């Protein structure tokens, strides 16, 4: 919590600090949910995470969604997994958050079928609004794409979020 509060006071933080915060968050959630999922953070070789600055808390909402909406309702098909993969492409940081959960369509169906879940989550919209604001303020082109994953039979096999952050 201290790291989150500390990071939220800055416009930019090092990728190293962001990854440390995400690792602690993932550890906490894994314990909270009795190890129902595993996670992996992969950083491409040659990336100096202490030298790269990014806006804080840009990745975390997508990791949270992967856990809460993709993995917590997973009942079959093995253990849940969240992967965070960081690489560099040209002058951009390429961040992929991928889960092997139930997929967005089934998660939305579950959300609408349970009376206690009828409130609309604001996390994704707030994050999109932050990206728009960052792009305007710093004249950058931070972008995000969500991809629904499917197995060979066309069944939902998770979700992949691709974030492109200019560095």
Descriptive report:
The protein is of the alpha+beta class and 167 residues long. Helices cover 38% and strands 29% of the residues. It is built from 5 helices and 7 strands; from the N terminus they run αβαββαββααββ. It has helices at residues 2-8, 15-32, 60-71, 104-113, 123-138, and strands at 13-14, 37-43, 53-54, 80-89, 92-99, 143-150, 156-166. The strands form 2 sheets. The chain has a 5-stranded mixed β-sheet with strand order 2-4-5-7-6, covered by helices on one side. Strands 1-3 form a two-stranded antiparallel sheet. Strand 6 (143-150) and strand 7 (156-166) form a beta hairpin. The longest helix is centred in the N-terminal third of the chain and has 18 residues, at 15-32.
Q: What brief labels describe this structure?
A:
single chain; 167 residues; alpha+beta; Heat Shock Protein 90
Class from secondary-structure proportions = alpha+beta
Average of the residue pLDDT scores: 89
Largest sheet, spatial ordering of strands: 2-4-5-7-6
CATH C-level label: Alpha Beta
Supply Rg.
16 Å
Instruction: Classify the beta-strand content into a percent band.
Output: 25-35%
In the CATH hierarchy, the third-tier topology is known as Heat Shock Protein 90
Distance between the termini: 26 Å
Shape: globular
Order of helices and strands: HEHEEHEEHHEE
Helix content: 25-40%
Oligomeric grouping of the chains: single chain
The biggest sheet, with number of strands, parallel, antiparallel or mixed sense and barrel status, is: 5 strands, mixed
What is the assigned CATH homologous superfamily?
Answer: Histidine kinase-like ATPase, C-terminal domain
